[in-house]
Amino acid sequence: QNMKMVPVPEKAYGTFFEGDCYIILHTKRTSRGTAVDLHYWIGKDSSQDEQGAAALYVTQLDNALRGNPVQHREVQGHESETFQSYFRNGIIYKKGGVASGFKHVETNMYNIKRLLHVKGKKHVSATEVALSWDSFNKGDVFLLDLGKVLIQWNGPNCSIAEKSRGLALARSIRDSERGGRAQIGIIDNEKDSPDLMQIMTMVLGERRGELRDAIPDTKADELQKANVRLYHVYEKDNDLVVQEIATRPLTQDLLQHEDCYILDQGGFKIYVWRGKTSSLEEKKGAFTRAVGFIQAKGYPSSTNIEVINDGAESAMFKQLFQRWTEKDETQGLGKVYTTGKIAKVEQVKFDTTQLHARPELAAEQRMVDDASGEIEVWRIEDLQMQPVDPKTYGQFYGGDCYLVLYTYLRSGRPHYVLYMWQGRHASVDEITACALNAIELDKRHGDEAVQVRVTMGKEPTHFLAIFKGKLVIYEGGTSRAQKNTPEPAIRLFQVRGTDEMNTKATEVPARASSLNSNDVFLLATSQVCYLWCGKGCSGDEREMAKMVADIVSKRDKHTILEGQEPADFWEALGGKAPYASEKRFQEQVTHYQPRLFECSNQTGRFIMTEVVGFCQEDLDEDDVMLLDTWEEVFLWIGKASNTYERNEAIASAKEYLKTHPAGRDLATPIILVKQGYEPLNFTGWFNAWDPYKW
What we know:
There is one protein chain. The protein is α/β, with parallel strands linked by helices. Among the domains are: 10-49 and 81-204, 3-Layer(aba) Sandwich (Severin); 228-323, 3-Layer(aba) Sandwich (Severin); 595-684, Severin, CATH 3.40.20.10. It is built from 15 helices and 32 strands. The protein is globular and about 95 Å long. It starts with 14 loop residues before the first strand and ends in an 11-residue tail after the last helix. It is found in: Cytoplasm, Cytoskeleton. Its main location: cytoplasm.
C-alpha cells in the first residue's frame, strides 16, 4: 500500500484484491527445525511498481531471515500447490484494490451484492464475476452473496467434491466475514428450490437461453512435468549467460556452491538455486533472472517461480533429483536407501506389538500387522489358479506367477492383503492372468482386499515376514508337477536377514563372482550343501541361513568360513574369481517426505494434482488418490470413483514412476487400497486417522 508493507487483518486471510500485491510469510515446525516460505502474490490488475516493490521486500525479508526461506513468485489464478495449501477453504479474488479505495475491512459487512465463481476440487478459488446469468456455466459452483443470505448454485455437471468444497467456502464466508450471522441456501436442482430461484431471478433478472458448457481446466500433465532441464547462470563481461548443462535424471553434484542455477520443470515451474558462496549480485538478481528466463523462453508470465538457497532446499525441489543426500542426517528406524550392489541395511529389531498403538510405526516399517495371520498360496497354471502345497509355501520360481492371500484379524473382523508375485521369466499371458485372477479373488472377499503388485527380487518387508524366514526365490524354472527342464546340478543362494521377520534367500548365478563378504551363501551340489560365511556376516545371519539350508538341499551341511574354502567349493563354482568384499557402507539419503496426489486420467492425458500438507479430509469418495512414500506407491480408490479411473489406476501408478523426474525404480511395489479398508501401513502416514469417518 503506497509502496509500504501493511499487515492484512487475520479475518481477511485468503481474500485478495486483484489490483494489489501481497507478501505471505509461512513458518512451520518440522523434524529438522523450522521450514520458512515467503511468497509474493501478484494480482492480475496490479501495477508494475507494486510488483517491483513486492519482489524487493521479499529479498529484504530473506536477508533478515538469514537466507533460510524458500521464496515464491505467485500469479493470480496460477498459484503453487504449496500456496494453495495455506487456505484450506479456498481463495477469494475481489475486484479493485487499494488504489481504487478498496481495503480489507474488519467489521461485519451486510451491504454486499456479488457473484463468486467457484472452481477447483482439491484447490478451491473463487473469483468475483459480473452479476449476470452470462457468468454461469454447467460445470462449476456459483455463490450469490447478498450479505445476510448466501445462495450456492451447483451446476448440473458438478462433482460431489466440488459441491462440498463450495459449501465449505460459503460457511467460511459466513463465519469469518459475517460473524456467523448469515443464512446459506443451496440449489442443487433448480426445480426443487423455487424460493431460492426467485431470489436469484430478482437479483440477476430472467434467464434467457441455455447455460454455457463447463470449461475444462488446462493443467500441466505428468509428461510435461517430467521434462526437467538444468541451466547454469553466470555473468560474463556484464552480460548474463544462461547455459544448459543437464537433463533428467539430474544428480545433486551438478550444483556447485559458488554458482547459481535455474531448473526448468517443463515450463510448469522454474526453480532458482543460489549457491552458498555465490556473489551477492547473483543472489539479488535471482527473481529478475527467472523472469527474464521466462520471457526468453516464451513461457506465460504467470509461470510459477521458486527461489531456493543452498542447504535450505524444499521437498519439491529435492525430489527432482535422482538422489539427494543431506549432511549429518540421522536415519529413521533402520531405514537406509541402498545404492548399487553393496549396501547393507542394518536391521533394527522393533516391537511388532506396538503397531496398533502407533500406526506411524506401521507406516515407517511398512508392516500391516505382526505377520501372525493366515496364508494361502496359488500358482497361475494354464491361466487358472492352482493351489500350492502348504509344505512348499515360501518357495517361488522365476518362471511362475503366484497369488498369496494373507488374512489377519483387526478388532475382531478379517482383513485381507493380496500379493501378486510376478516371476522375472513368467510370460505376459501369465502376468495378465495373475492380475485377472486377483480381481476374482478380491471379489470373493467382498472387494475388501488390499492388492499389492510384487516384482521378483523387490519383495516388501511384510511379504518376507509372513513366510517366517523360509522365503526362497529360485531364478528360473517352475514349481509345477510336469517340469520341462531338469533342475541345475549346482545352485548358489544368497541369504540375507537376521530373524524370521526379514530373511530371504535369492538364487544367484553359480559363479565365484556372485559371492559377497557381507553375507552368507548356500552352495548346493549333488553331494553336499556348503554354508559359506562371509567375513562381514553376523551370528544371527548364520543361524537364519542354517534354517534355509534345509529347504534348498537334503544333503549334508558343511559350514565353511571365507578364506578357508576347500578346493571342491571353488571347483563347483567353476574356479576362483574376484568378488565384492568391501565393507558395506550406509549412504545417508534424505528422509523422503510422503506426497499425496489426486489422479485424473479423464482426457487420456495423465494429470496429477498434489495436495501439500495432506490429511484424511483430502481423500474424497469420488477420487483415485496416489500416496508416494518412495519405497512404495499406494493407490487409494474412493467408493464413488469412476470406473475408467479405477481400471486405469495401476497404469497411472506405473506412468507416475516412469515419468518421475528422479528416475525411479519401476519395480517399486504398487499397493491398491479401497476406501474403508485402509491398512495400518497406509493410515500411519496420515496424522490422526479416523477409522469411523466413512
